[in-house]
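Much of the work behind modern protein science is quiet bookkeeping, done one molecule at a time. The fold becomes a row of whole numbers, each drawn from a learned catalogue of backbone shapes. The protein below has been through that process, and both of its lines are reproduced in full.
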Amino acid sequence: MPDGTSPLAYNSTWQVRNDAWCSLEESSAQLVLAGAQRRPLDELGETIAKLLDVLGPIERFWAFPGLPAFGKVRRLFAAGKYDRFAALVRGINRALATDSFRTGQAWDLGAEDETLDRAAHPMEQARTDRPYFEVLIVEDMTEQQEHSLREELRRWRRPDDAFIYEIVVVPSIEDAIMAARLNFRLQACVVRRRFARRSPYDSSSLAQFVDSMIAEDVMERSPDDRAQELARLLARLRPELDLYLMTEISVEDLAGRLSHHFRRIFHAREGSLEVHLSILDGVAARYRTPFFSALKNYSHRPTGVFHALPISHGKSIVESHWIGDMIDFYGMEIFLAETSATCGGLDSLLEPTGPLREAQQLAARTFGSRQTYFVTNGTSTANKIVVQALVRPGDIVLVDRNCHQSHHYGLMLAGAMVTYLDAYPLNHYSMYGAVSLREIKSQLLALRRAGKLDRVKMLLLTNCTFDGVVYDVRRVMEECLAIKPDLVFLWDEAWFAFARFHPVYRPRTAMRAARTLIEQLRLPEYRERYQEFAGEVGAIDAADDEVLLNRQLIPDPARARVRVYSTQSTHKTLTSLRQGSMIHVTDQDFSQKVEDTFHEAYMTHTSTSPNYQILASLDLGRRQAALEGFELVQKQIENAMRLRDAVDHHPLLSKYMRCLTTADLIPAEYRSSGIDQPLRSGLPNMIKAWNTDEFVLDPSRITVYIGATGIDGDHFKRGHLMDRYGVQINKTSRNTVLFMTTIGTTRSSVAYLIEVLVTIARDLEAQIIDMSPAERAAHERAVQRLTSPSAPLPDFSGFHSSFAGSPVRDSPARDNAAQDTPEGDVRRAFYLSYNDSYCEYLTPEEAEQRVENGEQVVSTTYVTPYPPGYPVLVPGQVFSPQILAFMRSLDTPEVHGYRPDLGYRVYVDKALEIAATARAEPPPDGPPA
């Protein structure tokens, strides 16, 4: 922690703490040296005092080194015993830096200094393979009582315990909330009867971590009701924590009332052994990896393979004279674990009944869903499974046009009538944001006017978007259910699996929002709120569209069904081998209406030979998320903010590039909080924005604007970052590059990226100085081109009438112009092009000429430029002047669905006439509602 750096410059206290201890060790060593050389100590002493003041409020929330040891640090410094002070600080910092304290030895840091060396370098006989965690004890107790409890719990340890833990004791609800926010090592909490509401310590420097939702009258309630309130707060903040209650009254009565919150309830007079064993058992339940363990056990058994897979147990490799280097590279274990067996302790992904079923159930618990399914060929397949399970030919699906291509193809295969939703454009950066709630509601209301609402099946949105724009998921679902009570929601969270494990992100995830909505709809006070709403607007089905568009809607709790699906690329943001994904389900009608069709869709798209290594990695990734997800996501965000600060505050980098802020990527009309940079202005502001704004920005996705370099995004990525320096990124636009931090990002990797960016900027600076007048003019034109808005991003132009949605038979609005709605039959438009005689190619100039002449030019396929990576045209869509102008302005060489040698593939008039004739035939009754 550099001298003079305020803790407020950090975004997570673990980094404040780590840097403060490192600085303290360095300063204490300098203090000893200065004393030996008889140099003035005032400045060093002042620095050390400030560091101790930074650490003071924080240390009480961690088990190591503990308050007694930190108190001794202060006393030695105050007494001028600098040699012993420096030795103690050195021992503590080395133990923290090397994680050697995790061996769980009961160090006495108040003893002589040689004990500290054992703390920094644990004894050889100590077990170092046991995972370490900490347990929060909430009770107001004396220092002696705390010491006795700690020693009592230590005495129950056994050499064969799978884990080892230490305790953190806090006296109040406020301290418990702060500990849960700050200490990522906590895995369990034991709530006892005697605790206060407010902290007895000066917590002014940590005020942002105190939960403002603590009820003022909490201390007026009974001890057990207070414990229940604390459990509710902790469960909301850290749902992975195992909560236990110790009480002195009838545990039988409490068990029936409070078991929802607490894993177990104990009588205080029965001692601590059962508590100790339960704590270990609770962590063991999350630590279990049923499928990974089964696969590991199977791999160590001798087998005779008279089935597929010659590579099983490495048999086709071990004796090979030509591919032995395969084992040299991969090692033997991966081949020992290769098998096509589904029995002998293993399981079938298509019909799981054993360890795979258990692994998926554990994943459901970890991710907050009712059902979870593993997918071994990516979220592209997961998306197609969900769509096929729920959507029947003719069902109307509302979808963000800028969604991943797997949704476009999945909807096409399912025969959906697709209504494309337009996201707000960010023309200056050649990218789209997200779809506004007003746009979604207006399309639903238009379908209602046309008499088609009963055919609307699903709303499909991406959360978060590639560029980090995050929806208010609960509000979107709540307002849509007010219009269409049985609407199904599919949230593509391919880039958002990590969000479950951070308390600020979590409410905006699909599974958490679904659970909140289900709980909310059951509350008596919510039903009262709905009655007030209904009294103001009348029956939703008859209410005026403008009224519904301009106010927040509330669904009828008697009619609304919460039906939510989430697809997540575990491999993108959590730990898994490539293509490891999950489908999470919270659908109140799943078992009755969907389970059978879901199984068929799953069978359709899932290989009968799934990769067991991917499945095992999903099992392990779930374990990691359940036990250390909170820690890793905090570090992910801190590293992202470090990167942002380094780019924006570096004098050379800030000359050529800058990180785009929330205000740059989300227009003010969607930010009711009015906060331009929520996280940089403190955790309370981030919480406020994430609680109120329609859209927020994921801080871990850093879009860097590089227009001033004169280098376009694609060349910056390929020619500089990847080819020269090995820096891997994914998305670019014409003038931006997107960096993202993950749970695998380290401070060193951030430092390397900054080094690379500085080198690029320094080389650019040198090149500009050496440019000739002609070269400088060309460079200035490039900068001008990249810093000026490009052609406006085109909205969806519409389907040709041959593929557009048909009127509803017997509808009162059948002959009304208001019945025209934008959905289209993508499947018919897609497969019609399989007849080559129906298609032709047009050069861009020919296409423009036909459009200028008033002709309708219709695409036969998806046309997707990279960047930006979304389809500008889909099958059956009409070319517009805006689309052609946008395509003309692109300077990317990669455009899927467009052939540079031939041009655009479009329909001839004959094909459109045939399609129109087919459309004019009497429509079927359509799928049942």
Summary: The mean pLDDT is 90. The first helix runs from residue 13 to 36.
